[in-house]
Design goal:
heterodimer; A: alpha/beta; 10-stranded mixed sheet; B: alpha+beta; 11 helices; globular
Amino acid sequence: MSHRVVVTGLGAVTPLGEDFPSSWRALIAGRDADAPLTLFDTAGCRCHRAASAALPPLPGLSAKAASRLARASRLAIPAAREALAGAGLLDSAGKSTLRNLTFSVSTTAGGMAFGEDFIRRVLARDRTHLFSRVSRYLPHQQVLDLQQALGFEGHSVILANACASGANAIGHAADLISTGAAEIVLTGGFEALTELVFVGFDCLQATTAERCRPFDLNRSGLLLGEAAAFLVLESDTHAQRRGAQPLCALTGYGHTTDFFHLTQPQPDGAVLVDVMRRATTQAGINPEQIGYINAHGTATPVNDGTEATAYSTFLNGALGITRISSTKAAIGHTLGAAGAVEALFAIETLRTGHLPPQLNLHTPIPEIAPALVAPGEPLREAQHVMSVNLGFGGSNAALVFSRNRAS
Amino acid sequence: MKTDLVVIGRGAVSPAGVGLDALLRREPVPVLVPAPGDPLRPRPVLRVDLKDPAFTRWEREPRLRRASPMSLFLIEAAEQALAGIGPADRAATGLIVAFSAGCVGYSRRFFETIVTQGQKMASPALFPETVFNSPVSHVASVLGLNGAAYSLVGDESAWIAALKTAYVWLRLERVKQVLVLGAEEFDPVILDAYRSAHWLRHQPCANRFLASEGAAGILVRLRGGYHSPGLGPTISRACDGLIYRSRKEAAAAADRLCRESDPELPAYPTAGRNWLGPLEKRFAENRPAVRDETRPYLGEAFTASAAWHTLRALAALNPKQPRLLLPVWGLNHQLGWLELEN
């Protein structure tokens, strides 16, 4: 029943670059995208900075048609197109060569900026353009945008498990393939910065007015960001049949729910440890075989403390051998896209041997201080990497990627 | 896609009342609600009575004190579907909830405060409850469901995605059983949305589209699986992916639904009074008629409607009508269908 799942295409638009290679180069160079937020007014907020992405051009689409798209779609379409191109699934017109393509995707806010504009107009009793706003804010409209822009249809599933959604969408795609429910899946996540969400995190005092410092004792909060990232997953037999070269294999997926609190993880990290163990058990490996963990590392006091405790418990004797960093200091917390972008960073670490450095680290949390990645540090010889995410509501997810056996 | 999900528990909350019996038999009474953008013209809508003891009994739960109405609908429907399932089995139960608009009431209130009073007045108590995943977290926590949990989003077709996901989890033996729910809540701002889509155009009372709210769910196991309960009403197939962007494309999708589904199966009517009703009428023309008394109209509540229709169609299965087709007319993304059998 269980089919081996391989990754054959990657694509991303992040605050560090308009495609995945440029984003990766900037990340490894230690750059960050922390900047004043100009997408909307933040005068009444505590914080005024975020990691915004530059919108890539959309070839084949008129300026008018592009202006009708949600910002989330503007981020997602080029990222998904890049992933399909990398997998050799894009024709000369920029459309998918597979008309029927299963799609597993994540977001938390969809096209919320349109929803915000709808509410503004309703409150102002302005009846103009209401339909064009309300009809485009729901996440399945961005799915339709992607399906239309890239020319595919078929089963789609939209996961909204808060900040773990991206990892869940990828894990679900792998589940579909391993059970034979699909042979190939386009999967990933997208998120655009919106006022409702920005103000939400700001009023919770979860964001910081200082630098975002994951796993630092003096961390004071997160930096919000936006991004889209996609992968093509397929069964190894499907990849072989069409002559596609796997980049790596997805060998483990763990997910569960932490009941402790709606917005806070269980302090001892036991639930997160359980999730990571589920993922490594499915992959058939021990924790010490993991070369690198791309941590959730939001830089909020509560999250990072719990996560550090969990890694310390999970890795035990391997702490310091397995390297850890959070890339949120560079690209911000991209919410529904986080699990997908960070999975791509973990995969590229495995492929290139370059480790994303832990930026803005001055006084590391003692429990995991020996494990945090220093700038320029290379990955030791490793066969496996992991990406970990936690979300509102207690969603926890971990993915294990492994070198492909044949590569 | 073959699913073979045996239904072992059912629960429902609707404007007709709490429980399966109300869902099948009781006629809900509309109330008039003004839309914020058109306050002088109240519209009839179907609401769930939150004063019902079925909901007030949950007020003592710390997790539910600030929870949205939708969380209360969900937890009540979930508790009904889990009747007879003990704590150990609940811990091995997966949870999947399909939404369309999510916690629209709290989202509207949160953003309205930002617009009318300024960003400084935004409520940190409200914001977490606006997240799609919050009601799922509440249900899992209060009912002790610590298997996997997913929040899925879409139109009515998200219900199909939820059922397919349940099948995958059961095939992987990740959980013993899965609780699959659909839920929506009403907020007056929805009327402005529906009005802008021309869904509230004046029609004779008997045919009027009514906004609605509620939740429903089923507890499923895999037929022939390790934890198989034996025979029972089963969702044997779930198919989706007939996407559309316009009324013309929707008509083409309906034609495909007609071609690709089993023509021998009676099709349980579900589109009723929404804009896809005429397509459904055409779709059902050449099929065997359903043997089922006419059920009261419950209004339109996206994924909750899809779940209500599934429960009603399951109730319509009998020895003379052992198999049914349940078309799922997604209102703004895609069409699909389920095959049900006794």
